[in-house]
# Entry
Amino acid sequence: LSAPFRQALTERGLTWAVGIPFKQKVYAADVAMIFPVAGHGRPRRRHIPDVKSMAAQAMLEKAQWRTVSWRRGTKGRLSARFAAVRVRVADGPPQRIRDMGAQHLPGEEVWVIGEHRSTGERKYYLSNLPADTPLKQIAGAIKARWVCEQAHQQLKEELGLDHFEGRSWTGLHRHALMTMIAYAFLQSRRLKQAGGGKKNPRPAAPTEPTRRQASHPHRARAAA
# Structure
């Protein structure tokens, strides 16, 4: 819900994907700012959008939905139905627009994404990924949030991220950094152990001298 948060991420050159409520207002990507002609009263001084904003859910109703799989889980491929449309999110400065009262003007051009899960649950997101990004990559970026949430949970439960009792930003920064270093070390050890080798490795093919010894065991004993 925090427009300043999203805008600050963009200002730092970061790519982001965030969850939003279905009623988040957005404009069509080709929205134009026009100068309204006043029929009566004082002349208008500010431009307004030439179309109304609408909820993210309504924007995606007529979009093309398709099934996308973003990765393989423990029970097989993970998939859901996704749709994505380029929009301009309504998080610009507020301004009175005709008889609609104060409305947020068009802001940054982003993706609005909808997800229909097999359980019937529906989710909505915004992302500032480039306009030519494939839908599968968009879905993968959205689902990467689960990895971040898991890491944050483990940092708190296993490594004491939530045990900081200082009062300075520097102290908090150092505490978070040390827990992240510890987490990265433990993850590297876990992955190394998991990929240390196959449970039933295939025996290596015998070399030529070994084959000859197997076919002539008395020669092998004599050589020994």
